[in-house]
Amino acid sequence: MSRRPGERSRRYDKSEPAALGDVISQLFALRGYGRTQGNKQLENSWAEVVGSDISEQTKVMGLKNGVLQIGVSNSALISELSAFLKPEFLEKFQTDYSHLKIKDIKFKLRGSLSK
């Protein structure tokens, strides 16, 4: 098929342009701004559930597939959290913070925790 002089070779998308709000939402998601806000909410919830003594020795590492990942400063505290306090904390999250949809809590040793 031959083109006429001045005729463009590409076809352009003739659909409506995307709404500015949708474009900005996609940009925020790509840049990770929403994740930062979500992590702050998790950190605040963790501190409220466990109290200041434990929260000073731990750090929220993230939430993946409903499992709250917590970094812990020493192995003795991991043992205490896993064996004795985890069921209590999990119950508090599931009742008071059900919107976070936390199914489990995993503790990982992290020697130096910078918050």
In words, what does this structure look like?
It is a single chain. With 115 residues, the chain is α+β, with helices and mostly antiparallel strands. The chain has helices at 20-31, 33-50, 52-55, 75-96, and strands at residues 58-64, 67-72, 104-109. Strands 1-2-3 form a three-stranded mixed beta sheet. Strand 1 (58-64) and strand 2 (67-72) form a beta hairpin. The longest helix has 22 residues, at 75-96.
Keywords:
115 residues, elongated, 3-stranded mixed β-sheet, alpha+beta, 4 helices, GMP Synthetase, Chain A, domain 3
Kindly summarize this structure in a few lines:
With 115 residues, the chain is an alpha+beta fold. It is built from 4 helices and 3 strands, in the order αααββαβ. It starts with 19 loop residues before the first helix and ends in a 6-residue tail after the last strand.
What profile does the largest beta sheet have?
A: 3 strands, mixed
CATH superfamily: DnaA, N-terminal domain
Our measurement of the CA-to-CA distance between the termini, rounded to an integer number of angstroms, reads 65 Å
What is the number of helical segments per DSSP (H or I, 4+ residues)? 4
Q: What's the overall average pLDDT, rounded?
A: 83
CATH class: Alpha Beta
**What share of the residues lie within helices?**
40-55%
**Whole-number total of structural domains:** 1
